[in-house]
Known about the structure:
The structure is a single chain. The protein is α/β, with parallel strands linked by helices. It has a single domain (42-201), classed as 3-Layer(aba) Sandwich (Glutaredoxin), CATH 3.40.30. 35% of the residues lie in helices and 19% in strands. The chain has helices spanning 3-17, 22-25, 78-96, 98-101, 118-126, 139-148, 191-201, and strands at residues 47-49, 55-57, 65-71, 104-110, 133-135, 153-155, 166-168, 172-175, 181-185. The strands form three sheets. The protein has a five-stranded mixed beta sheet with strand order 5-4-3-8-9, with helices on both faces. β8 (172-175) and β9 (181-185) form a beta hairpin. The radius of gyration is 16 Å and the shape is globular. The chain starts with a helix and ends with a helix. The relative contact order is 0.21. Residues 1-32 have low confidence and may be disordered.
Amino acid sequence: MNRCAMSTYRTRFLAACLPLTLLTAACGAAPAADPPLAGAAIGGPFELVNSEGEPVKWEDFDGKYRVVYFGYAYCPDVCPLDVQRMMQGFEQFKQAKPDLAAQVQPLFVTIDPQRDTPEVVGEFTAAFSDDLIGLTGTPEQVDQAAKAFAVYYSKGPDSAGGGYLMDHSRAAYLMGPEGNPIALLPVEKSADDVAAELGKWVS
């Protein structure tokens, strides 16, 4: 993500997260016992389609924890690495605590509906885990979902060959059984860190 895009994303994300007690921790205070994203204006209803082209709503996952990552299948580097660490961490958590892992649903939501058809999204997610559900939809549906999660994304210029990259924010959200935001999973670090964060909040 370029600096301008990152600045725009940070502004939007901080605006959504101002109620967080996490802000005091950044100033040297002791970590809060509450989840880092408690009270943040993140998440909300959406309707997309899965790899089979079947409609999927946010409320379909009520009662389950949700891990939500926004990216795109044609991403050459960041998305595959993040999703790999996310799902490897989930698999570690699943091996250690299968009963709790059964209460968690990982979701990959595309921000490139122009190219990421249900079939493409299905192929992408299947490369990482059978537990990962891929979601796509119309540009309007994807935009609604992205805005609900304070996700920034923008289409880059077309290359000589007709391809393009997507500029987008980088975050994996852990959401609670009622759709409430809990924490960001450290997919930029390691699978071990992801597993540890899941173990901290999923109970």
